[in-house]
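queue> holo job accepted (zinc ion)
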Amino acid sequence: MTQQKIDIAQQIDKLINLQAVDSVIYKLRAEKNQKPRQIQEFKNQIEQEQKVFEETKSSVKALQLKRKEKEIELETKETNIKKLNTQLYQLKTNKEYNAMQLEIAALKADCSVLEEDILKFMDEIEKTESSFKDKQKQLDSGKQEIDSQINKIENEIKSIESELSAQEEKRSYLAGDIDSNILSNYNRILKGQDGLAVVSVVDHACGGCFMHLPPQVINEIRLKNDIIYCQMCSRILYDKRADQ
Ligand SMILES: [Zn+2]
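queue> job finished
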């Protein structure tokens, strides 16, 4: 019964204004929603680099451990040689003497193999350590870069949020001036149609879903006696040309 008191043309104008603000709000929300994923991508990147770094670090440790083992083995054999050398002159027979000399020679051969191994390990450790240091530098500068990127994104989120709250304030001001039934229809369509509830007629078709509109419907839209909804996508239709 209050339907007749409502100026539909005016309501449509208000809906168009509201839609303009809502479009901005939807765009800002979509932008904001993308940000955490961007931050996560940066975090994954640095995690991957950290992992490579830790791997190099532990391979240096493993090499150092192997070197230490060889050094202990070498030390044991050298102690053994010294011991045998002192025993050598206490031996009674030539046979015993020769046997022990063979034993010493074998130990000495083992020692020189061990010394070579140790040198190889030292060489490898040196190389790995230098690449380790390079990786550390890379990691440090990478972390700095990513921290500043994340910082930048966090600032972008803040500025989107403040823009959003300004737009939301504007929205509630505009919405307060619209008939409550019309507004609740609008809100329902807005939600269901991904932020686009009011569309203009484009080339005799709905500007939202592009369904062709019969001349009868276009006439009704131009008359503005009622709010006309698209039969396909249920969006609210208006005709730009009707305003001219
Ligand atoms: Zn449509």
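queue> The mean pLDDT is 94.
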